[in-house]
TrEMBL record, chain A:
<feature type="transmembrane region" description="Helical">
    <location>
        <begin position="88"/>
        <end position="109"/>
    </location>
</feature>
<feature type="transmembrane region" description="Helical">
    <location>
        <begin position="28"/>
        <end position="49"/>
    </location>
</feature>
<keyword id="KW-1003">Cell membrane</keyword>
<dbReference type="GO" id="GO:0005886">
    <property type="term" value="C:plasma membrane"/>
</dbReference>
<feature type="transmembrane region" description="Helical">
    <location>
        <begin position="55"/>
        <end position="76"/>
    </location>
</feature>
<dbReference type="Pfam" id="PF03626">
    <property type="entry name" value="COX4_pro"/>
</dbReference>
<keyword id="KW-1133">Transmembrane helix</keyword>
<dbReference type="InterPro" id="IPR014257">
    <property type="entry name" value="Cyt_c_oxidase_su4_bacillaceae"/>
</dbReference>
<dbReference type="InterPro" id="IPR005171">
    <property type="entry name" value="Cyt_c_oxidase_su4_prok"/>
</dbReference>
Automatic annotation (TrEMBL), chain B:
<feature type="transmembrane region" description="Helical">
    <location>
        <begin position="70"/>
        <end position="94"/>
    </location>
</feature>
<feature type="transmembrane region" description="Helical">
    <location>
        <begin position="346"/>
        <end position="366"/>
    </location>
</feature>
<feature type="transmembrane region" description="Helical">
    <location>
        <begin position="276"/>
        <end position="297"/>
    </location>
</feature>
<keyword id="KW-0349">Heme</keyword>
<dbReference type="GO" id="GO:0009060">
    <property type="term" value="P:aerobic respiration"/>
</dbReference>
<feature type="transmembrane region" description="Helical">
    <location>
        <begin position="29"/>
        <end position="50"/>
    </location>
</feature>
<keyword id="KW-0812">Transmembrane</keyword>
<keyword id="KW-1003">Cell membrane</keyword>
<dbReference type="GO" id="GO:0015990">
    <property type="term" value="P:electron transport coupled proton transport"/>
</dbReference>
């Protein structure tokens, strides 16, 4: 999936090839965008339907996580080459934040 | 601005203005060295007062309250205002040269980081003159710090907040520099170990400082704006501060010690005239230490009642850190093994570091065993342990690094003879001071105690410890004399003064041109300069033709932005006091100065300037590359 950027200076990446890739990319973006709207509707519906909060909170959080992943990979191009360092640091940050939150909800007594 | 402006002799005021506005990483390094050195002396004087007070039983050299302030400021100053900036000095001076860059990625932010640190440190230390210093220990545990009267803790929280912003900016700057600005051929696995440790330490700064920022903000709000995060009577929890502090605080010790490891990893191959043994395992160990550093913070809190499962997990994780550290120790020993060794002053520090640091590491593993830690906790055993790792690791690294990189930073060589005197005095003093403290701790002497009684078996040990501290102070005085003499004689030593420089920074002419590399060098392997030397060359092969070099303009804005926050901090601190109506306006004025300066910087275009090809060619005879 290299050189999807229209300003790529690589002459080997032809105009036709880029056009094709852009069309694919566009399709994925439309699909994910639809799904994100759908998820949002489900989230509102779940709250509106009055399920137990032990279901709603984890469920909405899960939907939120999926939406963040969509956002990063399909709209912010994290799936493309050249994003290894940002990925490394984002995942490291996520791990540190997760361990912190895990510790705060498990070993801090009130 | 052209080359001519830079080569002109400046008057004193001109030099001061140059340093106030500089965005050059080499000059910022010197600023960090001066400021860090100043705070190191301040922290050292505090240490001497502690040891004078504890030299004899029932001493009343300082009062109990003042003693609490001194130990708090000693710890805070040494960690935040001495060790970190001194390491930042070497990172700034060396790392961009080691990777073949012309400056750090964001020179303006580099200057901003320094001035934020400086004003934060200044604010913290002004507490001595404005109603008393913080007195709740460098960890400032919330139940104690919320109860502390006066403004001491406010100085601590606001001062560290400001200097913490600076550190965070510095860390991000180094990360971006190392990821984006390596010279052609400088792959990750060809980076010198000091660059690698700077990289990992900067990543740790990126992840560790936000918890401190959050914790400090909570403390500031609890103390100054009436919230109750840590106040049990308002439904808060005092333990939260401890977690935030140590989630930051434990990585912090690796932020400090990893660059020191990096300095030693440069010194050993240079003076053993051998390539660093096990380079890739050194890189692996560095990254692993950085990773594990985030999984162990609760070992500072074994006795707070986390429960046996949490204690066991954190104990095992802590012991695991001994493995990558052990890898490093063995690699250093095997680097020296069979080398053609030259015992210069930096090498002496490096060799002395190995046993000293291992002793600190061994007591660390002892404390990692949670049941045993219940006995060691808050005793002088802990004090002995962390001084062994911090002085035996970081301070020896800083002193060794100062001698090693002095020619790079100033173009002159510190006296080897005086350097050896400093080394002997300091090393003997260090072991004399802290070795005996292990036993004082095991005999039951509590940490942070103001004085002790006669007839409890603590007199001799404490006296020995205080005598050792005097040796260390003498060593530092000799070092200062050495610096003054060296700079007064000002004998320029030229390129590659140690003769065995292996990495890119030694390939540059001395003093380093302000644009660093006339042409970016082509890196053909690990120890890039050494490879060229083996082929009989005296300089690097250029990777590009001579062309225009884009340079940033100097700016006074970093100073103004930091000054604004410094002023605002006084307003935030005093606004809750009775009859201090001026506080809120001061807070607002300070913030206006900061945001005004930021706005000015954002609106006014500053594209820097170019050094033209012709000037570079003209420069050839005046310290250029050729």
């Amino acid at each position: 999936m290299a050189n999807l950027h229209p300003n790529s200076g690589d002459p080997k990446v032809t105009y036709e090839y880029r056009r094709k890739k852009h069309a694919e990319e566009m399709r994925m973006q439309v699909i994910t965008f639809t799904m994100m709207i759908f998820f949002t509707v489900i989230a509102f519906a779940a709250v509106g339907a009055g399920f137990s909060k032990w279901f709603i909170v984890p469920f909405v959080l899960l939907l939120a996580v999926v939406q963040v992943i969509f956002q990063l990979y399909y709209f912010m191009h994290m799936s493309h080459k050249g994003h290894e360092a940002p990925q490394l640091f984002m995942y490291s940050g996520v791990i540190v934040a997760f361990v912190t939150i895990l510790a705060f909800v498990t070993i801090i007594w009130w | 601005m052209s080359t001519i402006a830079h080569t002109q002799k400046k008057g004193f005021a001109g030099t001061v203005w140059e340093y106030l506005t500089t965005v050059d990483h080499k000059k910022i390094a010197i600023l960090y060295l001066l400021a860090g050195g100043f705070f190191f002396i301040v922290g050292g004087i505090e240490a001497m007062m502690i040891r004078i007070q504890l030299a004899v039983p029932n001493n009343d050299f300082v009062s109990a309250g003042l003693f609490n302030e001194i130990i708090t400021m000693h710890g805070t100053t040494m960690i935040f205002l001495a060790a970190m900036p001194l390491l930042f000095a070497f990172m700034n001076a060396v790392m961009p040269l080691q990777i073949g860059a012309r400056d750090v990625a964001f020179p303006f932010i580099n200057a901003l980081g320094f001035w934020l640190f400086f004003f934060g440190g200044l604010f913290l230390n002004l507490s001595w003159f404005l109603g008393g210093a913080p007195d709740a220990g460098w960890t400032s545990y919330a139940s104690l710090s919320l109860a502390s009267e006066g403004h001491g803790i406010d100085f601590y929280a606001l001062g560290l907040q400001i200097s913490g912003f600076g550190t965070l900016m510095g860390g991000i700057n180094f990360l971006v520099t190392i990821i984006n600005m390596r010279a052609p051929g400088m792959t990750y696995m060809r980076m010198p170990l000091f660059t690698w440790t700077t990289f990992v330490a900067s990543a740790l700064i990126l992840f560790a400082f936000p918890p401190l920022t959050v914790g400090l903000f909570m403390l500031i709000f609890d103390r100054m704006f009436g919230s109750g995060f840590f106040d049990v009577s308002m439904g808060g929890n005092t333990i939260i501060w401890e977690h935030f502090f140590w989630i930051f605080g434990h990585p912090e010790v690796y932020i400090l010690v990893l660059p020191a490891f990096g300095i030693f990893s440069e010194i050993f191959p240079t003076f053993a005239r051998k390539r660093l043994f096990g380079y890739s395992s050194m890189v692996f160990a560095t990254v692993l230490i950085g990773f594990l550093g985030f999984m162990v913070w609760a070992h500072h809190m074994f006795t707070t009642g986390l429960g046996p499962i949490a204690n066991a997990i954190f104990a095992v994780a802590t012991m695991a850190i001994a493995v990558p550290t052990g890898i490093k120790i063995f690699n250093w020993i095997l680097t020296i093994w069979g080398g053609s060794i030259e015992f210069t002053v930096p090498m002496l520090y490096a060799v002395a570091f190995i046993p000293s640091f291992v002793m600190g590491g061994v007591t660390g593993v002892m404390q990692a065993a949670a049941p045993a830690d219940y006995q060691f906790h808050d005793s002088y055993f802990i004090v002995a342990h962390f001084h062994y790792v911090i002085v035996g690791g970081i301070v020896l690294g800083l002193l060794g690094g100062a001698h090693f990189y002095w020619p790079l930073m100033f173009g002159t060589m510190l006296s080897e003879k005086l350097g050896k005197i400093t080394f002997v005095l300091f090393l003997v003093g260090f072991h004399l001071t802290f070795f005996i403290q292990h036993f004082l701790g095991l005999m039951g002497m509590p940490r942070r105690v103001w004085t002790f009684l006669e007839g409890q078996g603590l007199e001799t040990g404490n006296l020995i410890s205080s005598i050792g501290a005097a040796f260390m102070a003498l060593g530092i005085i000799v070092l200062l004399v050495n610096v003054v003499i060296t700079q007064k004689n000002n004998v320029q030593v030229g390129r590659d003064p140690w003769k065995d420089g292996r990495t890119l920074e030694w390939a540059l002419p001395s003093p380093t041109p302000y644009y660093n590399f006339k042409q970016l060098p082509l890196v053909r392997g690990l120890d890039a300069f050494w490879i060229e030397k083996l082929e009989g060359k005296t300089e690097m092969t250029p990777a590009e033709p001579i062309g225009d070099i884009h340079m940033p303009n100097n700016s006074f804005m970093p100073f103004v932005i930091s000054l604004g926050l410094f002023i605002a901090a006084f307003g935030a601190m005093y606004h809750a006091d009775e009859g201090k109506g001026w506080a809120i306006p001061v807070l607002i004025i300070g913030m206006l100065i900061t945001f005004g300066a930021m706005l000015y910087r954002s609106i006014k275009d500053d594209h820097g300037y170019h050094i033209h090809k012709e000037e570079l060619l003209d420069d050839a005879g005046k310290g250029g590359t050729h």
